[in-house]
Amino acid sequence: MVVAFGLGDSQGCNQPVLNLAIRRHPRLQLAGMTSPALYRRFAEQSLVEALADTPVVLIHGPRQCGKTTLARMAGDPRGYTYFSFDDDVALGAAEADPLGFVADLPERTILDEVQRAPGLFPALKAAVDRRRTPGRFLLTGSANVLLLPKLADSLAGRMEILRLFPLAQCELAARQPRFLDRLFTGAFRTRRYERLGTNLAERIAAGGYPASLVRATARRRAAWYRDYIETLVQRDVRDLARIRSLDVLSRLLALAAGQTARLLNVSDLASPFQVSRPTINDYITLLERVFLLEQLPPWHSNRLSRLIKTPKLHMGDTGLACALLGMDAAVLTRDRAMLGQLLETFVFQELRRQASWHEEPIWFHHFRDKDGAEVDIVLERGAHLVGGIEVKAAASVKAADFRGLRKLRETAGNRFAAGVVLYDGEVSTSFGDRLFAVPIRALWETV
After folding, report:
1. Are 109 and 245 found together in one domain?
2. Residue pair 358/389 in contact by the 8 Å Cβ criterion
3. Which of 228, 284, 327, 405 pairs as cysteine with 419 (C-beta 3.0–4.6 A)?
4. Contact, 329 vs 342, CB < 8 A?
5. Do 188 and 211 belong to one domain?
6. pLDDT tens, 54-86?
7. Could you tell me the sign of the dihedral formed by the alpha carbons of 74, 157, 62, 247, in that order?
8. What's CA 443's distance to the chain center, in Å?
């Protein structure tokens, strides 16, 4: 007999598969947005396509970003049985007899939080090699399981990986935008938008975690984020590494939140702690593995040698960053310096989320040379197209704001598709050869 274990299973290990219906939360009303809390995830189509031709599909991303909901929404109508390794009984059974556990699984199975059972990967490989059925296993992971050697060795060539992020602004608005396509074709039209104004700071502070967004007030959302960090550090990080002082990680993460969108400076991050720079580097890597931090690598070109080669540091979600910094929308509006940093991270993460379901792979970098010319975000599509994004919290744009984009255009040559200054204004317009000023709202409202 196969027993399914799931979240919210309070009736013991013999309870059958959870009810297939997914209950809707109360409706969300935030900053003028009204929408049900069960959002359509634009990654769902990519997931369905992967299940149709790949034996193992992995959805990975931070806890509480919606991986389980997406897996159940795609898997339940297709007859998948759900198991969660957050259930200690299921985890114990998988660890005690991996081969027997996998052999007894139903034909189509969801295995949730699979990073907690790395010993299962060789058994999954054996099962797939015996019967290479498309969509055999649907896995989710809240840590970057690609860094686990057993997974890399066991399922190479047998698994497709989908990265799921917290909700994008376009998912909140239920609009699938064409911003990335317009960037790589230079197809921005002259038109007007409504300025975001104070609504921009509210969106930044709210972030994209579904469980936070259903809370009625900014204070309650911030409380959710603080509890989230505490739980994540005490549970998932402890599973990944043995660290004596887990409180250092929470303090380091708060310090990193204040340096989001800046060049990574390990010395500055290490200075408040009685630990070495290599140890801080290890901690940063650990926080990256649970998707709380992200390093944005520098863009390189053989045509220009005077480039800064230090990565930028970004928080994985601006709502999380604001909670760590104790900043709500009102405080953020008054602190223009911090608003600029968090806005850059907000735009970067929105672009990353949109790129995750794009038909073509897109790589992200930043650009900075030793003369001070810089571009906040550089996007590469394939080997032939480069686009640049500069982010401004101001309501106006000047020709001088395109300095870095002009340098990128010169360096990239024929590969340069377009450069955009995203700003909190009203007019989308051209500033010359493949350069555009575009309101931030166009990120999720262009259709």
Report:
1. no
2. no
3. 405
4. no
5. yes
6. 999 999 999 999 999 999 999 999 999 999 999
7. positive
8. 16
DSSP code of residue 416: E
Q: Assign 3-class secondary structure to 53-95.
A: HCCEEEEECCCCCCHHHHHHHHHHHHCCEEEECCCHHHHHHHH
State whether 150 and 174 are in the same domain.
Answer: no
Residue 373 in tokens? 């010319």
Contact between residue 202 and residue 33 where contact means Cβ atoms under 8 Å apart: no
> Which is more confident, 412 or 249?
412
Same domain for 225 and 282: yes
Tokens 């204004």 sit at which residue?
425
Integer Cα distance of 165 and 163 in angstroms: 7
Total-model pTM? 0.88
- For CA atoms 333, 336, 342, 348, the dihedral sign is positive
How far is residue 304's CA from residue 253's CA, in Å, rounded to a whole number? 34
Task: Convert the pLDDT of each residue in 38-52 to its tens digit.
Answer: 788 999 999 999 999
Range of the domain at 73: 28-163
Sequential DSSP letters for 190-245: PEE----THHHHHHHHH-S-HHHHTSSSHHHHHHHHHHHHHHHIIIIIHHH---S-
